[in-house]
Amino acid sequence: MNKILNFRNATHSLAGTVSFTVGSHLTAGWLAAVLLVMTAATPLHAQQRITLDEAIGKAVRDYPALRASRLQARSAAMLGKSASALGEMEISGGGEEIGRGNDAVYTLARVRQSIDPFGAGGLRQRLQAQARVAEAETGVAERTLSRQVSLDYINDYAAQLRCENMARTDSLYADFAEVARQRYETQAISPLEYQTALNRSQQVRLALAEAQKDLGMAHANLSRWLSADTLYMAAGVAPGLEPAAIMQPDSHPEALLSQQRIQLSQATVKEMRAQRQPKFFVEAGVQKIGPTAGYYAWQVGISVPIAVGATKASVRSAAIALERSEADAEETRRQLGNRLATLRMTYDKYAQSVDYYRSHALPLAREQQRIASLSYRAGSIGYLDFIQAVNDALTTEMSYVEAYTRMLESKYQLLYY
Question: What is the extent of the structural domain holding 256?
């Protein structure tokens, strides 16, 4: 009596579990297929499963390039404290009017302090603006990394779906080959039919092995963002897309970065203008004339830039750089808006395709596989009809996986565009 084996489709769990039955004997070929799948899957149990939110959080926290970006931002922030109106201090000593037997003038100690009250403020603002730019660049790097991790996570999840589809198809073909062998031994079918069944089963077995290799590469691609010595695998993907979770272009890190660059250009213009302002110095010293000490000297001075044309050119150059920053910011806003609109349409397109597969194509493909297996075992269809039916169903399943993968990719592109 035939045993009915229930295969529960974990592949499409997000769409709701789809069940189907395949009438089959627990033959040696079927058992070999199951053992192959279990052997190939054994290393996967040693991998560490991780959710997408956990993967993104770990990458943002630990990825070396992002840590370097944060350190760069901290270094730039520390430089903002280095601006001061007090410039260089000079300490010196020396002698003057040293001759034969005369009373020379000796400077025992002289201190000269430069003061730049107008330039210090502009320098401080420019350094602080640079620190904010570095911080905004870190925000862009975090978002870019989150997007890259999410895409590799989706590809890993899709590789699991493909592997599960191929494992199920391999079970069907293993049973098909075993039934063909039994019929061939009883001379119920021709050698051509038996060889075809055996060849098809071996081809599917090879395709399953290739799918498992692809899955291993997907694990490696995901793990490169998370660890140098641990392999991770996707644990699943949350269904649906919350429109409120989509970031608007004005608050996007790239838009914020462009605004910080505008502020940096503005601070640079102010700094260049401050270079045209006068600078001061104060000097004091203790002197000795001949053998007599107790004398002192002091000076107060001002320095004014003479090359007016050069300073005007520096200011003009900084003003042009400011205009360019404003133009770049406008371009960034337009690109973000266009990218968001395109991604929305892409997501809607693939979401519609996924709905079609889940509601119509996949149930028909499952039923097609079930009927084909039962019909071939009962002898009501030939081997060519079985192969055609199973291959058509597999094509439908793989098309669903591709559509589902594209939908998930566009979803997380929307969330981290």
Answer: 3-415
Phi-psi region of 99 (alpha: psi -120 to 50; beta: other; left: phi over 0): beta
Residue with tokens 């990394």: 145
The three-class DSSP label of residue 374 is: helix
CA–CA gap between residue 21 and residue 67 (Å, rounded): 52
Q: How many structural domains does the chain have? A: 1
Q: Answer for the pair 30, 38: CB distance below 8 angstroms, yes or no.
A: no
Is 172 buried (19+), middle (13-18) or exposed (0-12) by CB count in 10 A?
buried
Strands 292-303 and 3-9: unpaired
Per DSSP bridges, beta strands 86-96 and 292-303 are unpaired
The reported pTM is 0.74
Give dist(CA 394, CA 381) in Å, integer: 19
Between the CA of residue 127 and those of 267, 314, 320, what are the distances in Å? 9, 18, 20
- Give the Cα separation of 222 and 160 in Å (integer): 13
Contact criterion met (CB below 8 Å) for 156 and 234: yes
What are the beta bridge partners of residue 285? 110, 297
Give the tens place of pLDDT for each residue, 339-395: 999 999 999 999 999 999 999 999 999 899 999 999 998 888 989 999 999 999 999
DSSP 8-state assignment for residue 369: H
Q: Which residue has the tokens 């769990």?
A: 13
CATH code at position 141: 1.20.1600.10
The CA-CA-CA angle for residues 331, 242, 136, to 5°, reads 40
205: its two tokens: 């077995």
Give the rounded distance of the alpha carbon of 325 from its chain centre.
26
DSSP 361: I
Task: Kindly report, residue by residue over 25-73, the tens digit of the pLDDT.
Answer: 333 344 344 434 444 444 444 479 999 999 999 999 999 999 999 999 9
